[in-house]
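Hi there,

I know you've been waiting on this one. I reran it after we fixed the sequence typo, so this is the corrected version. Both the input and the resulting structure follow.
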Amino acid sequence: MYLPPTPDTPGDFPPIPPETGYAPEKGFTAVLTARLKAEIAKTVVSQEPLTDMALTALLSGGHVLIEGAPGLAKTLWVRTLAMALDVGFKRVQFTSDLMPSDITGTKIFNARDSAFELKKGPLFTNLFLADEINRTPPKTQSALLEVMEERSITIDGEVNVLPEPFIVFATQNPLEYEGTYPLPEALVDRFMMKLVLTYPGVAAEKKILQMYCQGFNSVSPAGIEAVCGPSDLKRCREEIAACHADDGILNYIVSIVETTRRVNVVSVGASPRGSVALLLCAKSRAVMQGRDFITPDDVKELALPVLRHRIILKPEAEIDGVVTDMVVENILAQVKVPR
């Protein structure tokens, strides 16, 4: 397990590249996230914004939904993160015939003991990857509702508490692709962030080809070091919990979220869960940058990934080409920023 060096005890750890923004005075969380970013960059090219936002949600204790066309390294990114975190990891390919018990587990009869025993499903882990979550019907999607909110699974009336930390990363293809099912609104709202991947630029795509020419293997990427474990993540969250948010910041967050409910093109705005998610993510982002206080810029930078999936537009607005990203951006331009 990697333990970031302190200014007094530098340790014998690999040097951190300057571009990661390493600075000993920034604190434990800032140093640790710099190392995680450096490890992920070994396999995933030109996805620094995804890495930054996803780590913010991870440290906030939230789940992440990643949307993008096939072939954009969504699954590779999550697998690389799991290797760098050194935590329990399970991946399930969601398909049209997947049943709820396939991921939660079930009770089976043990003839030798004449008793039923629990056969745990893949959800009993630290980091769970629901790959292509929108390729399975709502019945199976809904099996994630309890586990994502309460970190527990009820099987035959027995509540099974999951290990800490427990985070769900889900990938999905855009809904215009065949064989997909829209996610239930209640499930979507349980994701702290929705991140949207786009195609890499020409230079980044060329770098990907160069990596494969040098023998890179996306199935089993080599050279990824485990830089932290569950105890380190707990320490980060303790540091984040101590981050300060003054009344001006709280009012700013509430104003943004409340405005989503009053826009004329919106049918359903963000819930209080959205306000809490925006606050927690802002605290994580501040600590990741070496601060113990939130600024309005933290809130503005996180508003889009935290709120875009919590807003339901009116049908006529969708016909006119309005998207939720536009709504959030307009709200940020209108709500007064605290001084």
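Quick highlight: The chain has 14 helices and eleven strands.

Best,
R. S.
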